[in-house]
Amino acid sequence: MKKKFALVIPDRKPGLVLDAVKHEIRKYLKRERRKPLPEGVDFWDFDCRVGKAAEDATVKHPGDLEKAIAEVQAAGGAEVYVEILAKPGHRVKKEAE
């Protein structure tokens, strides 16, 4: 998903707009995780980027997406760019000490 979300909508409270954006992102991640895994893949991993625009978007962990979006809104951004790309993930076993 590569999408720009408006953070300032007339006649809507900023907190509710932020909650709607977070809800759509959670819904997308949940939908992607439900897809069947290819052979030899342990889980779906995600490459995520967030910023005021596509050019200045920075790489974020999926767990930090909501915090990064809130930071853009707190900085006075009128919109936020979110990029989430699913990729196959493989678990790595820890070495026994």
Outline the structure in words.
With 97 residues, this protein is of the alpha+beta class. It has one domain. Helix content is 32%, strand content 29%. The chain has two helices and four strands; from the N terminus they run E-H-E-E-H-E. The chain has helices at 14-34, 65-74; strands at residues 2-6, 43-51, 58-60, 79-89. The protein has a four-stranded antiparallel β-sheet, with helices on one face. The protein is elongated, with a radius of gyration of 16 Å. The termini are far apart.
The overall strand count is 4
Count of helix runs: 2
Q: Sum up the overall morphology in one term.
A: elongated
N-to-C span: 41 Å
Describe the sheet with the most strands. 4 strands, antiparallel
The total domain count is 1
Strand order of the largest sheet: 1-4-2-3
Q: Report the β-strand fraction as a percent range.
A: 25-35%
What's the rounded overall pLDDT mean?
Answer: 95
How would you classify the helix and strand content by structural class?
Answer: alpha+beta
In the predicted model, the low-confidence regions spanning at least 5 consecutive residues are none
Radius of gyration: 16 Å
Oligomer: single chain
Order of helices and strands: EHEEHE
Q: Could you estimate the helical fraction of the residues in percent?
A: 25-40%
